[in-house]
Structure formats: C-alpha cells, structure tokens
Amino acid sequence: MIKLIECPRDAMQGLPDFVDTAIKAAYINQLLEVGFDTVDFGSFVSPKAIPQMRDTAEVLSLLDLHKSQSKLLAIIANVRGAEDAFHFPEIDYLGFPLSLSETFQQRNTNASISKALETVETVQNLCQTKGKELVVYLSMGFGNPYGDPYSPELVAEFVQKLDDLEVKIISLSDTVGVADNELIKNLFEVQIQAFPHIEFGAHLHSRRESIAEKVIAGLAGGCKRFDGALKGFGGCPMANDDLVGNMATEVMIETLEGEGHSLNLNKAELGESMKLANYVFQS
What we know:
Elements: E1 3-6, H1 8-12, H2 21-31, E2 38-44, H3 56-61, E3 71-76, H4 79-85, E4 93-99, H5 102-109, H6 113-130, E5 133-139, H7 152-164, E6 169-174, H8 181-194, E7 199-204, H9 211-220, E8 225-228, H10 249-258, H11 267-282
Parallel strand pairs: 1-2, 1-8, 2-3, 3-4, 4-5, 5-6, 6-7
Family: Belongs to the HMG-CoA lyase family.
Protein name: Hydroxymethylglutaryl-CoA lyase
GO molecular function: hydroxymethylglutaryl-CoA lyase activity; metal ion binding
C-alpha cells in the first residue's frame, strides 16, 4: 500500500513572514481530513534557526485529532528537541535529518556527521522506551552541490549504520533536487533488496514538470512511501539559496492513481486543502 506523507512543516519553514499560529493549525486540521498516512506538522528545533516553527507546541494544542486517522510527525535536530517532543503523546514519529554531506550536516544541525550519528543512537534508544518511531532522513541522499563525497555505496554504508541501530524507517532525501530518474530507481531497488525489513521513503524536491517521472522512478525501484507538499511549496532553507520546491502532492496523487494505485483519499477535503494552501502561502 502506498503511503503519502504531507509536509506542511517543510512547506512553511522557510517562509520569511511568520504564519499566525491559528492559521497554521487551521491548515493542518484541514489536511488531517484528507486521509494522508502521516502529516509532518512541525518541528522542535531552535527558534533562532527556524523561527517559523517556534509555535509547534501551540499548534499541536489546537489540532483536532479525534476524527483523523493520520499520524503526526515532528522534526527534531538534537536530543533536547526529542525530549521536548516526548512530552506530547499525540506525536507518533520523530524525524531526524542525517546528511551524507559533512557540509550540509553542519549547516542543517550545526554538528558533524559523527556527532549526528551519536544523536541518532541516543534518540533511537529514547524512542524505543517512549513508544515513538524514529524516521531518519538521509539528506543529500542523491548527491550534493558542495563537492563532498557521494556514491550509492556511501548511501549503503549509512543505511547499514542505521540498521545496526534498529531504525525501521529511512527516507532518502534529494534535498536540492539533483536526482535523476535512473539513480532514483536504482538506489531504491538496491536498498530495498538489501534491507527488506526497513521501510524506505522518498523525500524528493523537484521542479513541477519532473514530479511525475520521479514518482514513477521511485515506484519502479519499489518505493511505497512518498513525501510531498500541496502546490509544491517549500524547500530546505539551510540547503541552498536557489530553493527547489517540494514534490507537489496533487501531482503525485494524479501520477500514483494513473499507475493504478488506490490512495483512499477524501477528494472533497483535498480540494478544500488546496484552496486553503493558496491562502496560507500566497496571502
């Protein structure tokens, strides 16, 4: 079964103007009506680094979770953020960005890769005792613009380290939109065959015209978990001055359904979410 992860947090986090807490909550509440597997709704990170997400706890208090089957995911960048997130039983998943690029790991979490791996181990151990699931995003998973080493073999080395820690969900992330279709297909195919007990996801960034072919490449490689954001808004503010947007969820839905996958989404609520997205991101 295909899992769609809707990422309003990723869409909002780089906006220059602060989105009012009530508006954030209203938008996320609307997304919770659609039927996405998971909603990546906020982050527990330094407000100096990502000021847009400084109200995540307040947003959470305004969410109506009683009718929704969607799970909640929050991003953390260190142990302190994880400990903050553990206070909220409503949160199902903690997401941690682990980079294959030393340059980007420093830019994104102000830590080395070796330090970040220590954090992953600590947070994973805590998640296992707190009843939450850790999702590790392998950022720069398809290459990077910084000249740091990259190869599919390096991806496999990182996956092996995470497997040793019993991490069960790994999202391969094309943080700056450099992946070509053949690499997407091959990378998922090799990793899924080597680690069949791990759930691999695709967190890709793309120009709108390339979204469908990237989804199809991921499917061909065996990927069944896809991250997106309505209208393709967002992009990592720590990655690059020339941001490449998120995968537009509506294009992914059209593509996945065109490939014969039933997504069990409420299309009326999806339409309302699209209208609200226009207000949130273009007002």
